[in-house]
């Protein structure tokens, strides 16, 4: 089966990488519709497909949807109608900027008897592999708490999701401080001491006590492993991540955002 895919929200550069890879896999899926203005960019992304003005027009036209809107606060509104109609959805990072919205999408997927998934593209990169369990994990990377695209969630999801991969489990209470120009969040997850360092600029780096430190390198095709995971989900009908795994980084970042607001107010 060749899955007909609709793309919702095209302002992210991820849309280009996703569409480019899907075009190399015509036996698996093809983009048949793009939601947005009928400008040159969207017509290019649509290719032989169509550009439609609203997401609702995709219902009945597609077998799956990819939400690539930059603002995670809009993802619930965009994804839920498809999930409720039984259409599988991949929400590009972040799933949401509030736990309540993420849970609403998961509930809609259950009602619709379909799958929803979301993750940082960095989770699937080779540089994130090969680490064993250690007593402490530190992940560092760029993030802008003032971003108009959901604040700390926009890039911070990469940092938080990498930490969840390396130290899976239910995150405990988060403590946030400012240290050496970085926003630092500390919590315990599954018996592992986790430290997140959100910096203004710099590479993504991970360190697992007893296993070493490594930069997570991003090449021109860094979104491809995530697209492959999405295609596997469509073929199998099984979501690659459990709900709790997707919720964990949202829980952490929600606490980070709240504490940053408190620090500013103080």
CATH superfamily of the largest domain: NAD(P)-binding Rossmann-like Domain
Strand order in the largest sheet: 3-2-1-4-5-6
Largest sheet: 6 strands, parallel
| Count of individual domains | 2
Question: What is the fold-level CATH name, i.e. the topology of the largest domain?
Answer: Rossmann fold
User: Number of helical runs?
Assistant: 7
Judged by helices, strands and strand pairing, the structural class is alpha/beta
Distance between the termini: 57 Å
Architecture (CATH level 2) name of the largest domain: 3-Layer(aba) Sandwich
Shape: globular
Features:
7 helices, 12 strands, Dihydrodipicolinate Reductase, domain 2, globular, single chain, six-stranded mixed sheet, Rossmann fold, 2 domains, alpha/beta, six-stranded parallel sheet, 266 residues
Summarize the structure.
GO terms for molecular function: nucleotide binding. With 266 residues, the protein is an alpha/beta fold.
What do you see in this structure?
This protein has 266 residues and is an alpha/beta fold. It has two domains: 3-120 and 222-241, NAD(P)-binding Rossmann-like Domain (Rossmann fold); 122-219 and 252-265, Dihydrodipicolinate Reductase, domain 2. The protein has helices spanning 14-23, 40-46, 75-84, 99-112, 153-166, 224-236, 243-265; strands at residues 3-8, 29-35, 50-52, 64-67, 89-92, 116-119, 136-142, 175-179, 182-189, 192-199, 204-208, 212-216. A six-stranded parallel sheet has the order 3-2-1-4-5-6, sandwiched between helices. Helix 1 links the parallel strand 1 (3-8) and strand 2 (29-35). Helix 4 (99-112) runs antiparallel to helix 7 and helix 5 (153-166) crosses helix 7 (243-265). The chain is globular, with a radius of gyration of 18 Å.
């Amino acid at each position: 089966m060749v899955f007909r895919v609709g793309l919702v929200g095209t302002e992210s550069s991820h849309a280009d990488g996703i569409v480019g890879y899907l075009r190399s896999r015509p036996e698996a899926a093809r983009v048949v519709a793009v939601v947005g203005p009928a400008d040159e960019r969207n017509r290019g992304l649509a290719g032989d497909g169509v550009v439609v003005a609203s997401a609702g027009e995709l219902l009945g036209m597609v077998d799956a949807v990819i939400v690539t809107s930059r603002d995670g606060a809009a993802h619930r509104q965009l994804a839920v109608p498809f999930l409720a109609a039984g259409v599988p959805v991949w929400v590009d990072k972040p799933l949401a900027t509030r736990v309540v919205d993420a849970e609403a999408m998961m509930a809609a997927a259950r009602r619709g008897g379909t799958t929803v998934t979301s993750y940082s593209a960095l989770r699937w990169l080779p540089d994130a592999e090969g680490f064993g369990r250690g007593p402490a994990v530190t992940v560092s990377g760029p993030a802008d708490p003032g971003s108009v695209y959901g604040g700390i969630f926009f890039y911070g999801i990469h940092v938080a999701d990498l930490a969840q991969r390396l130290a899976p489990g239910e995150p405990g209470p988060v403590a946030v401080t400012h240290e050496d120009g970085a926003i630092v969040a500390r919590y315990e997850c599954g018996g592992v001491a986790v430290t997140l360092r959100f910096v203004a600029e710099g590479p993504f780096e991970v360190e697992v006590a007893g296993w070493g430190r490594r930069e997570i390198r991003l090449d021109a095709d860094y979104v491809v492993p995530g697209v492959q995971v999405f295609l596997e989900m469509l073929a199998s009908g099984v979501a690659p991540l459990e709900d709790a795994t997707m919720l964990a980084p949202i829980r952490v970042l929600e606490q980070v955002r709240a504490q940053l607001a408190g620090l500013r107010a103080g």
